[in-house]
Amino acid sequence: MKTNERKMIKIVEGALRQAFVTLQGLSQKEGSQVVGQGKAFGDLSNDIEIQADILLGQVITDFLKENKVNCRLQVEGQKEMLLGPFPAKYYIAVDPLDGSLNFAKKGKTLGLPFSCSIAVFSLNDSKYYFKDVEAAGCMDLRSKDLWLAEKGVGCFLNGIPCYTSGVTKVDIKKGIIIGEMYYPGNRELLCRIFKGERGWLRNPGSSAYEMSLVASGQVDAYICDKQKLDILGMAYLVVKEAGGSIIDFDGNDLGTKEYIFHSQMPVILASTKFLSSEILARIK
After folding, report:
1. For 99-120, what is the mean pLDDT?
2. Torsion angles phi and psi, residue 143, rounded to 5
3. Which 8-state DSSP code applies to residue 253?
4. Could you tell me if 116 and 19 are in contact, meaning their C-beta atoms sit under 8 angstroms apart?
5. I need a surface site. Which of 134, 184, 215, 237 has the fewest CB within 10 A?
6. Per-domain residue ranges for the chain?
7. pLDDT tens per residue, range 5-59
8. Domain at 3-160: CATH code
9. Crossing angle for the helix pair 273-283 and 184-193, nearest 10 degrees?
10. How far is CA 39 from CA 45, 50, 268, in A?
């Protein structure tokens, strides 16, 4: 790992930790205030943004500025901006609060998961590709659990190397598969491919967190027919570095796919290529 890339993983870690600290000082009532339409909660257009999204996005932006990171920065709900001189050295994609509804509804409990994710792409072209993600991280903003990945180095959960479960066959009685339930088409797909089977299908409501669980082995696979790409760059590196598989519904690894922040694509994240292939066969 090059020195600059080593520095960027520290930047990712620092930004995520700053987001965690900031959210602890924010009351749920204040953070849950709706401030805009079309920015979060699953859809690309018909959705909601809350105050906590805005605040965490600004905190991460300020952290990158303070550390003089030269990048093109895209934060969910904001316009892309240039930090430092042109041309930028990196492209950074941020979802400051994935699982906003979970945060808004948690009450006096820890609630369902809500997380923050960051992906750092090397810039070699006017376009970005999944294979260009050099450093990435996701933090559970309830527990402070932190997934970090460096290209060619590995994936780490709370500083300890982590790996996928290694499961090669679908068995929802013994393992957990997460399927995105927000989209009707995906719900129908899940009912079809697991028809008649008893077992564990879940959807906690924070896809960045859910996909990270594939990397650390708690979940065997994640399936979504319309996954938003804002957090998928992070998930690609985290799961790949943990030994997992990430493919589209045509069976193609996402590595050579163009990364477009404000877009969606069908994905299967799995512990192994064997497992993703079986899930794909069921879908087909």
Report:
1. 94
2. -100, -15
3. B
4. yes
5. 184
6. 3-160, 176-283
7. 569 999 999 999 999 999 998 887 777 887 766 544 455 555 667 889 999 999 9
8. 3.30.540.10
9. 100
10. 7, 9, 24
Read off the tokens for 178.
Answer: 């997460």
Give dist(CA 138, CA 119) in Å, integer. Answer: 9
Q: Give residue for tokens 């859910």.
A: 210
* Cβ(230)–Cβ(93) below 8 Å: yes
Q: What average pLDDT does range 78-86 have in this prediction?
A: 95
Give pLDDT tens digits for 198-250: 998 999 999 999 999 999 999 999 999 999 999 999 999 999 999 999 999 99
Query: Cα separation of 163 and 239, whole Å?
Result: 8
Instruction: Give the C-alpha separation, 48 to 104, whole Å.
Output: 11
User: What's the confidence (pLDDT) of residue 46?
Assistant: 52
Above 50 in pLDDT, residue 75?
yes
244 near 115, Cβ under 8 Å? no
User: Would you tell me which CATH number, out of the four given (3.40.190.80, 3.40.190.10, 3.40.50.2300, 3.90.230.10), belongs to the domain 176-283?
Assistant: 3.40.190.80
Q: Does residue 105 have a pLDDT over 80?
A: yes
Element (H, E) at 202: strand 200-202
For residue 52, give both structure tokens: 């906590």
Identical fold between 3-160 and 176-283: no
Q: In whole angstroms, what is the distance from residue 154 CA to residue 134 CA?
A: 11
Angle at 154 between CA 149 and CA 157, to 5 degrees: 60
List 246's β-bridge partners, or say none.
Answer: 269
